[in-house]
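pasting for ref
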Amino acid sequence: MTSSPPDRTGSADVIGTAPASVLERVRTEPRTHAAALAVAVCLGLVLAWLHWVGLVVAGALVGLVSPGLRRGILTALGFGVLVLIVFALSLGRSAWFVLEMRPVVFVPVASAIGLPVFGSLVRGAV
């Protein structure tokens, strides 16, 4: 008695597919792309809250789900602006005092924008 292997042609079965095909699907299908981008942004915000290396990892995540290198860089730039907004909101009323601390304030601004863009360059390799 021999049994035939299960049919893996259904689109719901992702376990047996190669990572490259899953990544290609995330980059081309609009709904899947939006969901993957939302997960990457949320995970990136959590990682950036824990450590500054999370900014690089978050940039790499949003860069990997982007369809092209240019779009990945622009998405990482937008993520950096989002990080600055979340940082300013977390400071509350003290945010205005932090803005007056020049040139020290340039370090968090440059790192919040530059590190995700640096991480998104991984899209050029994949």
